[in-house]
Amino acid sequence: MNKLTFILLSAFVAMSMAFAPVSTHVSSTRAFVAPKMASSEDMTWEGEYPPSKVLGPIMSKMPSGHLGVISLLCLTLCSYSCFQSFLLQQEPGAMADGSWIKPYYVIMGFGGPLSWGTHVAAWIQRKNGM
User: Fold this and answer.
1) Exposure on the CB side of residue 24, measured as CA atoms within 13 A
2) Mean pLDDT, residues 100-128
3) Domain total for the chain?
4) Is 125 within a domain?
5) How far apart (Å, rounded) are the C-alpha atoms in residues 10 and 18?
């Protein structure tokens, strides 16, 4: 009964606030103008590949080989989770009750997009001589 009373009271308060008089006081606010980017922060490029600065403060300092290994590791984790999920789906009744879904396999599944991103970062670093 307490839950029902709380819900009804909350609904009553919400409805009464909807019809409350609106304040006529208008507050003035200053318009915010975004600062212009410095030319050193410009992320455009000319040519076949972008500069390393487009990768951010961490990956722009990593060598291409390290990014390639990270990419391979992420792809391996994603492939492993897909294969293990496939094996779990083959068990009788697994599809009916959802027992084949494991949180750690779902998390490892994010390795696919991460693998793609890090392999592109490795390519950018290799083209830039790192």
Assistant:
1) 0
2) 92
3) 1
4) yes
5) 12
Higher-scoring residue by pLDDT: 8, 111: 111
Q: What is the pLDDT of residues 63-80, one digit of tens each?
A: 999 999 999 999 999 999
Instruction: Report whether 65 contacts 50 (CB < 8 A).
Output: no
The rounded distance, in Å, linking the Cα atoms of 95 and 16 is 48
Q: Look at residue 48 and tell me if it is in a domain.
A: no
Question: What is the extent of the structural domain holding 70?
Answer: 59-130
Residue type, 7: I
Instruction: Decide: 125 and 67 in contact? Cβ < 8 Å.
Output: yes
Residue 111 lies in a domain: yes
Instruction: Report the pLDDT value the prediction gives residue 87, as an integer from 0 to 100.
Output: 92
Distance CA 113, CA 15 (A): 46
- The pLDDT assigned to 118 comes to 94
What are the CA-CA distances from residue 116 to residues 70, 105, 107, 110 (Å)? 10, 18, 16, 10
The number of angstroms, rounded, from the C-alpha of 61 to the middle of its chain's C-alpha atoms is: 22
Pair 108, 81: CB distance under 8 Å: yes
Residue 79 included in any domain: yes
